[in-house]
Amino acid sequence: MTSNNSSLDIQLPRPSQNYAAQKINQLQADLVATARTWAVDEMGAAMAHQLNEPLTALLLYLHEIKAGGACLLDTDSAPNSMQSLVEMALRETERVCEIVEKLGQTTEMPTGGEVTVARGREAIESWTQTRNRGGYYQVSSVPPRFSQNILTPREREVLALITEGASNKVGGPRLGISKRTFEVHRAHIMEKLGAKNAADLVRMALSETR
Amino acid sequence: MTRVLVIEDDHSVGAAIQMMLACKGCETVLAPDANAGVQAFEASKFDVVMVDIFMPGIDGLKTIKGIRERAPSIPIVAMSGFRFRDSTGPGLDILGMAAELGAVSCLRKPFAPAQLIAAINSGLDPALSVGRSGVSEPGPKQ
User: Fold this and answer.
1) What chain B residue is nearest to A33 in terms of C-alpha separation?
2) Residue among A144, A194, A137 nearest A166 (CA)
3) Which band of pLDDT confidence, cut at 50, 70 and 90, is reported for residue A178?
4) A139 CA to chain B: closest CA distance, Å?
5) Dihedral over alpha carbons B34, B38, B41, B43 (to 10 degrees)
6) Phi and psi, residue B30, nearest 5°
7) Which residues span the domain enclosing B105?
8) Residue in A37, A60, A123 nearest the CB of B59
9) Which CATH class name applies to A137-210?
10) How far apart are CA A178 and CA A182, in angstroms?
11) Residue B17 located in a structural domain
12) Shortest CA distance to B23 belongs to which of A72, A86, A73?
């Protein structure tokens, strides 16, 4: 039996420096792999977008060819022969082939892919700003002096949450945005600041706030 | 005759839609970007507007918002071939965002003629619906 005033001193084994170093290395490797996955995903989406444009036109033309082009022959405002319909379908097929050819020659995005990604980002940024004008959870952002001319106000808010250790799942709802949107912001911030991984990002943010 | 405004930066897609809709007796006006689209919308009367989401300059979401402010009841069809996705789950629902802004229907590219017509008809008064028996179909060539 012990008295009420006594305290129990429990000694837990401290992790060795080696263990901690291994753990950090593993986490950093995981973060690098995740960043690479984001980059590949974004590139894939841009490629799909490039292909979907000519495929849309091609699909419409081919359906009309399959239908015999009868409708076209009866309208004044449309091409007036099956020949021109086939030529248009051929042109779109060649467009698809050009994109695929470029994919085979380079690991970079097809021409215009960067623009597509930028458009997507702008639209999402615009959307999230619109949605968060009222009623949503507000968080303090990383001070504006941190990369003020590089990050948008929303990205600074996301960065503030990242430095707090918020995951995408937790950070998204706190800003009133989806987990995916939060991820997109995170990817943009890393790209803009040249951070190789999340640890790098946090280090940069903390060094600025000191 | 049903009048459709198509705001689409890819000319080939716009031209193919115009061809299909001409077959269904619609008059289609093409606009290559948001500014041209809004100008065309203000200059003339349309029954339905189709808007591509990812365009240079002003994107489709802003365009939908702008048109919705000018004409709260005009049917708007959003279309996009872009999808944010990653290896860990579903991507951002861009077309869902468009629907929240007031698009009556959303088309994911590539789409077939039947999907195009269904999307347009989903917001139209049945009297104006395209591709149905005797309504808005082109008459015999003179």
Assistant:
1) B87
2) A137
3) confident
4) 23
5) -130
6) -100, 140
7) 3-124
8) A123
9) mainly alpha
10) 6
11) yes
12) A72
Q: Does residue B65 sit within a domain? A: yes
Complex confidence, ipTM: 0.82
Contact A155, A185 (CB under 8 A): yes
How confident is the model over B5-19, as pLDDT tens digits? 999 999 999 999 998
* CATH code of the domain in which B95 resides: 3.40.50.2300
User: Encoding tokens for residue B119?
Assistant: 């999307």
Chain B from 66 to 105: CB within 8 A of any A CB: 81-92, 94, 97
What is the maximum alpha-carbon separation in chain A? 102
Partners of residue B86 in chain A, C-beta under 8 Å:
37-38, 41, 180, 183
Domain total in chain B: 1
How many alpha carbons lie under 13 Å from residue B89 in its C-beta half-sphere? 9
A86-144 pLDDT, tens per residue? 888 999 998 888 888 777 665 555 555 555 556 555 655 655 555 554 433 333 344 44
Give the domain ranges of chain A.
47-112, 137-210
Count of beta carbons in the 10 Å neighbourhood of residue B118: 15
Residue of chain A minimizing CA distance to B80 = A49
SS (H, E, C) A158-180: HHHHHHCCCCHHHHHHHHCCCHH
Collapse the DSSP code of B49 into the 3-class scheme (helix H, G, I; strand E, B; otherwise coil) and give the result. Answer: strand
Q: Is residue B139 part of a domain?
A: no
* Angle, vertex CA B33, rays to CA B20 and CA A89, nearest 5: 35
**What are the C-alpha distances in Å from B29 to residues A208, B38, B58, B67?**
53, 12, 19, 15
